[in-house]
Amino acid sequence: MAIMTMVFLRALILVALVSAAVNISLAQDAPIPNASPTPNGEPALYTYKVAHDHRIGKGDGELRITDTGIEYRGANEDEARHNGVWRDDDIKRLELSKTNLHVFTYEATQFPLIPRNTPKIREGRSVRFGAEREHEFSLVEGEITPEVVRTLLARFKRPISSSVLPNDTEESGHLIFEIPVFHRQRAGGASGTLRVYEDYVAFNSEREGHSRYWRYDDIRDIGSLGRYKFEIATSEGQFGTDGRSYIFDLKRPMTSGEYDQLWAKIYEREQTLRLRREQPGESRKAASPRGKTGHVNEPE
After folding, report:
1. At residue 99, what are phi and psi to the nearest 5 degrees?
2. Which end of the chain is more exposed for a tag (fewer CB within 10 A), N or C?
3. What backbone phi and psi angles, to 5 degrees, belong to 247?
4. 169-178 LR contacts (CB < 8 Å, sep 24+)
5. Sequence-separated (6 or more) residues with CB below 8 Å from residue 280
6. Strands 133-139, 175-184: parallel, antiparallel or unpaired by DSSP?
7. Which of 101, 117, 146 is the last residue of a domain?
8. Is 67 within a domain?
9. Are 76 and 141 in the same domain?
10. Of the given ranges (16-30, 134-148, 233-247, 254-268), which has the lowest mean pLDDT?
């Protein structure tokens, strides 16, 4: 009898805890808070048929890139609950590949606890957390081209991560230097070439989806991790961190002159922008997160 009583009490406590968790920050699963695209929206520069990831399940719709933002329209009444209009200022960052577009906005993330259309439950339930929300779209037709990436880079000042390089070789501008590298990943990696240009840094790889492009404003830090290893820290999102780091095995050492050129592109540009913002009489002390001491051109 005592054992049965203990089991019963534990079950009651478990039910109470689950009920409390469900009642904390509960929200209806779907409506995007700032989303209500007008029937007569802006003309689209680019339009794609997409699948919208709901974390649990997905829906079909149309993704439109306009002059001032990005819009999503569900293909049916049920999916229309996810309709959204995000102006450029509402978007925290973008992540692009040939067949995917991730839009991160200044909203709390909704994690579904009870999916919609669960038997006997018409509306789903989700818990809100965090300070940004990811909207993931997979292209059903077509692909994101270099032209699309160029369009977004030209007007969007927040961080953009793209595996689609925006420029052809002839349009790339002045090449400062390049190094053959191997990009390390959790499982394996990809070989390619790390190229440093006047206005950006690119990792070119023949493997689909492994190339990367960064404007200097999107790079937070760089550092030499030894004679044959190099790190680029970016403003891309990664759970639990302020950004993402890319580690490259160098197939030849980066010279001190090459490192100093890249360092100057990132930090001296940052100092120039800061000095322009300062008012007369304010301190103009130059500094950088790591400085040139981050470079170690000695054998490991």
Report:
1. -120, 10
2. N
3. -105, 125
4. 172/197, 172/202, 173/197, 173/198, 173/199, 174/198, 176/258, 176/261, 176/262, 176/265, 177/258, 177/261
5. none
6. unpaired
7. 146
8. yes
9. yes
10. 16-30
- Cα 103 to Cα 88, 96, 122, 236, 287: the distances in Å are 11, 9, 28, 12, 33
pLDDT digits (tens, 9 = 90+) for 45-77: 999 999 999 877 899 999 999 999 999 999 999
Instruction: Compute φ and ψ for 257, nearest 5 degrees.
Output: -65, -40
Cα distances (angstroms) measured from residue 127 to each of 9, 30, 56, 110:
27, 12, 14, 5
Torsions phi, psi for 238 (to 5 deg): -155, 135
- Pairing type for strands 160-162 and 91-96 reads parallel
Last residue of a domain, which of 146, 176, 204?
146
> Tokens standing for 253?
């050492």
Residue 8 domain flag: no
Q: Give dist(CA 224, CA 247) in Å, integer.
A: 10
* Chain segment 74-104, per-residue pLDDT in tens: 999 989 998 999 999 999 999 999 999 999 9
Residue 10 belongs to some domain of the structure? no
| DSSP letter assigned to residue 254 | P
> What burial letters (b/e) apply to 198-210, b meaning 16+ CB within 10 Å?
eebbbbbbeeeeb
Same domain for 203 and 172: yes
Amino acid at 250: L
Put simply, whether the predicted model's pTM sits higher than 0.90 gets the answer no
Q: Please state, in angstroms and rounded to a whole number, the distance separating the CA atoms of residues 242 and 236.
A: 8
